[in-house]
């Protein structure tokens, strides 16, 4: 696992968006394969549908960079750490030291992608000016991140998912409309029961570069659900 994380981090530094594409594509494919294997073992499916897995792979690849950009947007606009008393919380650019010798003039692309989060003094306390503790994290800002994610991005990404799958399946306009109408709200309501708790932990504890793949790893079960739901509705 450590080797996988090192490989991911190394590739993220060089090609962040491509790395997000590949990682998200692979993980969503795993989710669909898992769902289909469960269906085969239970007798619900008669044959493995490779085309369906490829549709999930394409969707995952297309959503990886969007997920990375969205997480950076949340990081910049809803900073979890508060400034010292008397110091305003500004949206200053984070200065990232270049870790690669010989490239002092050019930061790795992954580092540039992560720049832009609010920067506060190291060891800054909350309003007391004491040492950094867990109390420094703003619960209100964390709640805003989760709310923005669940009421902003989640409904949009679900619509994109259903619409994209319909296009990749070759459905006509009427079939696409029916697929979205019959699946959108039921899936979204289940989403709101599952993801807010996970995203609270993800936004709070996971570094920015790992949030999309961590979400996708946890989302393998969610992809199984989507695969089963969408697969059954198109059968």
TrEMBL record:
It is found in: Membrane. InterPro entries: Mpv17_PMP22. The keyword Transmembrane helix applies. GO terms for cellular component: membrane; mitochondrion. It comes from the Eukaryota. The keyword Transmembrane helix applies. It is a multi-pass membrane protein. Keywords: Membrane, Transmembrane, Transmembrane helix. Belongs to the peroxisomal membrane protein PXMP2/4 family. This is Uncharacterized protein. It comes from Rhodotorula paludigena. The lineage of its organism: Eukaryota, Fungi, Dikarya, Basidiomycota, Pucciniomycotina.
